[in-house]
Amino acid sequence: MDMRACAAPDTILRGSESAGWMKKMRDCRIRGFFVTVYDVSEEIDPEKIARVKRILDGEGFETWGIGLPVGHPAGLDTPRFTYHEGWHVRRDIDGNECRWCNAVTDRLIRDARERVLILRELGIPVMFWDDDLRAGNYEGDVQGCFCSECLAKFVRAYPEFDRKDFGRETLRPVLKKDPAGLSEEELALREAWMDFISAGITRFMRETTVEGVRNGIMVMHRGDRRHGIDIPAIRKACPGCLFRVGELMFDDRSFEAPGNKRALAEGVLRHMALMGDPERIWSESTVYPHGALTPENLRKKIVLERKCGLRNINLMGVERMNSDAYYEMLEKNVRAFEETEPCLTPENLDGFDFETL
Ligand SMILES: [Zn+2]
C-alpha cells in the first residue's frame, strides 16, 4: 500500500516550521505529497515550488504535482481565475456561464503543457490533474460547452450534423441523461457530441504528457463520457498514465446516508474496471470541508477502498484533517489497512454488510 497526501505549498512551508509535523506524517507512513503546483487561479511560482521540494526531499518525502487546469465548479478554496487569451468559460445548455469552469481549448492545453515543462525542470516526476479536468459537472445530462465557438467547432468536426438551425435546442433533447426513446439519428448525434467533448479531455492528457513526467487524471465520482471523460480513450492516448477513481462522500452526512457506501464502492469498482492495472490507480480519500468526515469515518472509507482493491491511498487535503485525531487514527490503523484484502466485486455488493467496516 502506498499512502500519500495532497497539500498546498503553504501547508508544507508552515509544516516545516512547526515542530513534529513532518514526523507525524512519517509516523502515518505517508510516503510523499501531491503538492498543488498549478492552479488556473494564479501563475505558477517556480521558486516556491523548488523551496517546497527541497524541504520535502530533506525530510525523505517525494514531491508529486497536482494541477487544477480549468477551475472548479465548487470554487473550493480558490474561487478565481487568471484569464488568458484563448481561454473561455464553459457555457451550459441554457447558454449560462458555468461557475469557475473553463472550456478545454487549444490555448488552455498549450498553457498547461508549458507549465508541465517548467515543473519537469524542477524535478517533479508525476503530474496529477485534479477532477476539475472535465467538460461537465457531477451527474446529470450529457454536458460540454455550448458556446457559439464550441458549437461551430462541433459542426466543423462533424459536418453530417451541420444544418442552418443547428444549436443548443438541437442538442438539448438528445443529451438527456436517459437516452431511452431516441431515434437512431438522435443517438448518433448524442454519440458524436460525447466523442467531441471527450476528444478535448483526451487531447489535454496526451499533449500534457511529456517525457520524464508521468501524467495522471483524477476522475470525479461517476465521471464518464457524459462529462467528456472517456477512460478507455485516455488509456489508449496516454499509455501508463495514472488514474484516480471518484468517490465523493467527503463528509459524515453523505458517507452515512443509506446506500451511499454501496454507491461509493460501485463507482470505485466501475472506474477500476476501466482503468486497468491497480498499481496505477489512486483513491479519493477526501475530507471536505474542514473536519467534515470524522477520523472514524475516514478509517471506514479507507477500509472500504482497500476492500475494493485500491492499493494507493490519496489523502486529499491534509489542511482539512484539522486535528491530531486524524493522524492518531492513521498511525493506529495503517497496518490494518495494509492487511485488508480486496474482496468486493460488482457481483457481491448486494450481499455485503457495509455497516461492518
Ligand atoms: Zn465553448
Structural description of this entry:
It is a single chain. This protein has helices at 9-17, 21-27, 46-59, 106-121, 148-157, 168-171, 184-207, 231-237, 252-256, 260-275, 295-307, 324-339, and strands at residues 2-7, 30-39, 62-68, 89-91, 97-102, 126-129, 214-218, 242-244, 281-282, 285-286, 312-316. The protein has 12 helices and 11 strands. Helix 1 (9-17) crosses helix 3 (46-59) and helix 11 (295-307) runs parallel beside helix 12. It has one domain (2-356): Glycosidases (TIM Barrel). It has a 9-stranded parallel beta sheet with strand order 9-8-7-6-3-2-1-11-10. The chain has a two-stranded antiparallel ribbon with strand order 4-5. The relative contact order is 0.12. A hairpin with a 5-residue loop joins strand 4 (89-91) and strand 5 (97-102). With 357 residues, the protein is of the alpha/beta class. Zinc ion (ZN) binds next to helix 5. Residues 88, 103, 145, 147, 149-150 line the site of zinc ion.
In a nutshell, what does this entry contain?
It contains 12 helices and 11 strands.
CATH H-level name... which superfamily? Glycosidases
Present as ligands are: zinc ion
* Residue share in helix: 25-40%
For the secondary structure, the number of strands is: 11
Radius of gyration: 21 Å
Based on the coordinates given, report the CATH architecture. Alpha-Beta Barrel
Number of helices: 12
What general form does the structure show? globular
Tell me the fraction of residues in β-strands, as a range.
Answer: 5-15%
Q: What is the arithmetic mean of pLDDT?
A: 95
